[in-house]
Write a structure and sequence with these properties.
CATH topology: Rossmann fold
Largest sheet: 7 strands, mixed
Number of helices: 8
Number of domains: 1
Shape: globular
Structural class: alpha/beta
Strand order of the largest sheet: 3-4-5-2-1-6-7
CATH superfamily: Vaccinia Virus protein VP39
Length: about 200
Amino acid sequence: SDIGSQKDRVVTEEEWLQKWEMGNIGFHKEHGHPLLQKYLDVLLNGRSGLRIFFPLCGKAVEMKWLADMGHCVVGVEVSEQALKEFFTEHNLPYFEEPVPEISGAKKLQSTSGNISLYCCSIYDLSSSIVGKFDGVWDRGALVAVNPRDRQRYVSLMITLMEKKSSYLLVTVSYDPNKHKGPPFYVPESEIKGLFG
């Protein structure tokens, strides 16, 4: 696939944490993503009370939006700062607890119980820890994953999906020789190859 000079690019966990610390989060959408509103029916498919997964969730406002509709939201993010800002900015009370299966990981959960955010590497998660999901909102995850880790990422995502799961994926299209990423360019042919 023609992803230019990006295939060997690696962004470390420390670099992501630094982006949050410095407030260098141009990828965060204050008012939610218009594509989720546009394709919400595709994600929900007439169903209510879904379990919806937000990979690399940051402090996505859509998590509260979907929880307010009666869905159960689970996210994962390496930046504890991002997760705490999510709860603070929405005035949501929450509590923290360790995740026994993952060394050093924490789960921040709304006291209402319908939003659970894991602070750890996404690769530490498994369906035995977080369960399976009826829907996935992948707005900035696949395009943020290091190109060499895409297969690992998609393999994990597939294990987290229920049989009739809906997966909404947002990518960006541009010349990968002119921008080093992230967000990384993921050609449609590669998406088809990864997800089958």
